[in-house]
TrEMBL record:
One of its GO terms (molecular function) is tRNA (guanine(37)-N1)-methyltransferase activity. Its EC number is 2.1.1.228. Homodimer. Its main location: cytoplasm. It catalyses: guanosine(37) in tRNA + S-adenosyl-L-methionine = N(1)-methylguanosine(37) in tRNA + S-adenosyl-L-homocysteine + H(+). The lineage of its organism: Bacteria, Pseudomonadati, Bacteroidota, Cytophagia, Cytophagales. This is tRNA (guanine-N(1)-)-methyltransferase. One of its GO terms (biological process) is tRNA N1-guanine methylation.
């Protein structure tokens, strides 16, 4: 899989991809993540990429010219299953979107910043708009990192234990059950006996029961 991310502050994301599961997935060739600094596509003297909004009002808008130059440059090299604009206006990101996007060969993310991007980019290029929640971030960079992380960890081989991604919260529509590690007893707090029993069927049943209980208590909306 290849993921291209266009941003005015790519440095906000670069260290993210240098750690943990994403780093390993990149190193092992499962995914190629390319960050593109929009300033590199500006024709202006000081690499400017934003301008005042027509009609007035506060804040700057990312201009159509550098963004379309960057997009045309990338589109000349490959086609994308989706060109995704990260925006609070978008469809709320969830596990099923992550699952679906993880099947793509090429994905392109556009991170907004300032007041937003020229609407004509959304009309001409963007195929999907994604929000990571009902709040406004300073830019789409953290949202792009969130989506990329959720997608990359689903790629076969990205996680050491193959079954691990499948047992994540939400993957079966339920929250994940509690987990414990050694020691089995700490300051009078004990790990549930069933997990120490070695009885796989009982452990599986307990975990499912705990998942349902936790989902009922914390996210009953998921059960509807
Ligand atoms: N950009 C700004 N806020 C955002 C959000 N909530 N989700 C995705 N992109 C954003």
């Amino acid at each position: 899989m290849r993921i291209d991310i266009i941003s005015v502050v790519p440095a906000l994301m670069s260290s993210f991809f240098e750690h943990s599961i994403c780093k390993r997935a990149i190193q092992s060739g499962l995914v190629d993540v390319q960050l593109h600094d929009l300033h590199d596509y500006s024709s202006k003297k000081f690499r400017q990429v934003d301008d005042y909004p027509f009609g007035g009002g506060a804040g700057m808008v990312i201009a159509i010219e550098p963004l379309s130059t960057c997009l045309d440059h990338l589109l000349a090299q490959r086609s994308y299953q989706d060109i995704i604009f990260l925006s609070p206006d978008g469809q709320c990101f969830n596990q099923s979107m992550a699952n679906q996007l993880s099947l793509s060969e090429n994905l392109l993310f556009i991170c907004g910043h300032y007041k937003g991007i020229d609407e004509r980019i959304r009309e001409k290029y963007v195929t999907k708009e994604i929000s990571i929640g009902d709040y406004v971030l300073s830019g789409g960079e953290l949202a792009a990192a969130v989506c990329a992380d959720a997608i990359i960890r689903l790629l076969p081989g990205a996680i050491g234990d193959e079954s691990s991604a499948l047992t994540d919260s939400f993957q079966d529509g339920l929250l994940a059950p509690p987990v414990y590690t050694r020691p089995a007893s700490f300051r009078g707090m004990n790990v549930p006996d069933v997990l120490l029993s070695g009885h796989e069927k009982n452990i599986e049943a307990w975990r499912h029961e705990q998942s349902v209980k936790r989902t009922q208590e914390r996210r009953p909306d998921l059960l509807q």
